[in-house]
Write a structure and sequence with these properties.
Length: 289
């Protein structure tokens, strides 16, 4: 039986991936700060243990007897002066403790922007990579086997764009995106466990079809709820969304401006040879919701 320890299993993507791996018969251990939240979200088949990436002692106990780790952490800021980020200092702590304990393999989800900067048509840099990069470099230099999944945009996020009878898109999105989803990614993760061909590799994770964001939204809604309509708004609408802070507004504008100018090409064929080809169309994915 395949085994994996997951850190970041209570987020939207992480919980979906965890559930899919359980369906595939993987024995899963989840490291979480909030045990009750993890228990409420995840199957009884999951072993849940306390651990905080800010605390090495808790990690030593949580990661005992672990061979393979999957990290599903996310940064939503680019303040380089912050003293702690789960995706920077937190992952560095995980790597250091994993090396002490003899962990065999660490896998992590990251964005496609960090593997293919040439997709940025304006040469724009996605600033959260400045936060993420030190930990990625630390893992690569650690001597531990690593696998990075550089993912395109997830279809899983689409329901969050729906407010009432409207699917709101901010910005002008014309370029192709090879949308992925957590079900196909879970299949890739499954095939990477105990697979030496996946060691010390960076894989791009994309769907098979490149289409624009508005076109993808239309297809999603036709299968999900045809009564909902796609509406496109200019970028300055962000100032009127009532976000909690100016920092949140700035981050959203930076993220959407980056995505707006991102022009993907299909570069995942080598991933498919090792970890399997994606199976779900947009319509197929909607059926799983």
């Amino acid at each position: 039986m395949k085994n994996i320890t997951i850190i970041g299993a209570t987020g939207a993507l992480g919980s979906s991936i965890t559930k899919e791996l359980i369906k595939k018969g993987v024995q899963v251990k989840v490291v979480a700060r909030d045990i009750e939240k993890a228990q409420s979200l995840l199957s009884e088949k999951v072993e849940i243990v306390y651990g905080d990436v800010a605390n090495k002692d808790s990690l030593r106990e949580a990661l005992a007897d672990t061979e393979t780790i999957y990290l599903n952490l996310n940064t939503t800021s680019w303040n380089e002066n912050a003293t702690f980020y789960p995706e920077r200092e937190g992952i560095i702590n995980v790597v250091d403790v994993s090396k002490e304990l003899g962990v065999k393999h660490i896998m992590q989800i990251v964005g496609i922007d960090s593997s293919n900067p040439e997709f940025a048509t304006t040469g724009m840099i996605y600033k959260t990579n400045l936060i993420r990069k030190p930990a990625m470099d630390h893992l690569k230099k650690s001597g531990l086997n690593y696998t990075y999944f550089h993912c395109s945009v997830f279809l899983d996020s689409f329901p969050t764009f729906i407010q009432g009878e409207e699917f709101a898109i901010i910005g002008h999105h014309q370029y192709p995106v090879f949308f992925t989803n957590t079900i196909d990614l879970s299949e890739n993760i499954f095939h990477a466990i105990d697979n030496e061909k996946a060691y010390n590799q960076s894989f791009t994770i994309q769907g098979t079809e490149g289409i624009s964001f508005p076109e993808a939204a239309e297809r999603f809604l036709n299968a999900y709820n045809p009564n909902i309509k796609v509406t496109e708004y200019p970028m300055d609408v962000i100032q009127h969304l009532g976000l909690p802070s100016k920092e949140d507004e700035d981050f959203m504008e930076h993220l959407l401006t980056y995505v707006e100018q991102l022009k993907e090409e299909q570069v995942s064929e080598s991933t498919w040879e090792v970890l399997g080809k994606p199976q779900l169309s947009i319509e197929d994915f909607v059926k799983t919701l």
